[in-house]
Write a structure and sequence with these properties.
It contains 12 helices and 12 strands. With 375 residues, it is α/β, with parallel strands linked by helices.
């Protein structure tokens, strides 16, 4: 363990870090940095960077240095915790894999909006080659900070906020709408009655509304005439609302439910079990929560995403200034505990094959789900 980033020692006592020993075999070095002694002579590093930002960005983007004299370093920043069983923990799993491969790693959790600028700049000042802001709440902060550190790389796990961004910064389209479309297809295919299926969402935001529309479109593509319903609960963290929504959908004939609602989704799973219907998990493999009802789970490959971006930085192939769009079948994995992909007691071989045909077309962008991004 080492001390907190220099700027944060007195300001943010809630930040936690996790760093390996320095005796790992060195990977390629992404950049060269000012020494601590030289950095200490700067009266106002932030003011200096801001005054030089336009000049730096107008020049050629600085190349990576492959001196091999130290490990590549990665910092993962979260507004939540690494023990949430989903969003935070899956990304942290990628960080632990990087640590085992010799990367220098650190993480900070429970970062509030008011602390984000200080934390992002703190790890940047400490020379981390890659700083990952995990979640849309980091978008505006990293967008502002990244130009001040042109020799480092930044990655934010949300959609590109605007067309013109710093060339050392990358965002990602994680295929939410493709996953929702695929979930709708699978729900309709495995419905016993072929009458109705349902979606349960979390916060009433544009992303969840678009996922609902994509789910409905997928279900109706797979089984024309099926009734596809959706309830946006307005809350990610209320299991009782999830149970209530599941009860309403079941009461209206749904015999398969998919959720995208975190803790509220746990209530949706409980409601599906109580109603003796099939359920599809989301974000992580949720088979253990309902082994007799869980047909499969759409697990976000957040660990793989973190590993891929870090390895791009280490190899010098990181390309910023863009929104990365990995195929949906790489970003979302189908998991069902010991059954691997799906529960054979709830999904037939023919149903799974029909789903896979559509899933491949979505991944290959033969089925266009981009319409839901602006709807």
């Amino acid at each position: 363990m080492i001390s907190l980033p220099q700027k944060l020692r007195r300001m943010i006592p809630c930040v936690f870090i996790d760093m390996p020993a320095w005796d790992h075999p060195a990977l390629v070095s992404a950049n060269t940095f000012l020494s601590e002694e030289n950095a200490a002579t700067l009266l106002s590093r932030r003011a200096f960077h801001r005054s030089m930002a336009a000049l730096l960005l107008s020049a050629a983007f600085p190349p990576f240095s492959f001196s091999g004299n130290r490990t590549t370093s990665v910092a993962l920043l979260l507004s939540g915790v690494i023990t949430d069983g989903g969003w935070g923990q899956l990304a942290y799993n990628g960080l632990t894999t990087l640590k085992s491969r010799g990367f220098r790693t650190a993480y900070a959790e429970n970062i509030s909006l008011a602390q984000m600028d200080q934390v992002v700049r703190g790890y940047s000042d400490d020379g981390f080659d890659l700083v990952i802001g995990h979640g849309g709440e980091f978008s505006s902060t990293v967008l502002e900070v990244a130009p001040d550190y042109p020799r480092q790389r930044f990655f934010v796990t949300t959609f590109l906020p605007q067309a013109d961004i710093s060339r050392n910064l990358m965002y990602v389209n994680m295929g939410y709408f493709g996953a929702a479309y695929g979930a709708g297809v699978l729900a309709a295919l495995i419905s016993e009655k072929k009458q109705a299926v349902g979606f349960i969402g979390g916060a009433d935001d544009p992303n969840q509304q678009r996922m609902k529309k994509a789910f409905i479109a997928g279900a109706q593509h797979a089984v024309p005439g099926i009734r596809a319903m959706g309830i946006i609960t307005g809350d990610y963290d209320n299991a009782s609302k999830g149970r209530e929504a599941a009860s309403i959908l079941i009461g209206n004939g749904a015999d398969v439910i998919w959720h995208s609602a975190d803790i509220t989704g746990l209530g949706a799973i409980q409601g599906a079990v109580a109603g003796h219907i099939k359920v599809l998990g989301c974000y992580s493999d949720q088979t253990a929560l309902a082994p007799n009802n869980m047909a499969t789970s759409f697990e976000m490959n957040l660990a793989g995403m973190v590993i891929t971006i870090a390895e791009k930085v280490a190899s010098g192939t990181f390309t910023g200034g863009i929104e990365w769009r990995p195929p949906v079948d790489e970003m979302w994995l189908l998991r069902n505990g010991p059954n691997r992909n799906y529960n054979p007691h709830l999904i037939t071989t023919a149903e799974w094959a029909a789903f896979q045909n559509v899933w491949r077309d979505v991944a290959a962008r033969k089925i266009d789900v981009s319409q839901f991004a602006g709807s």
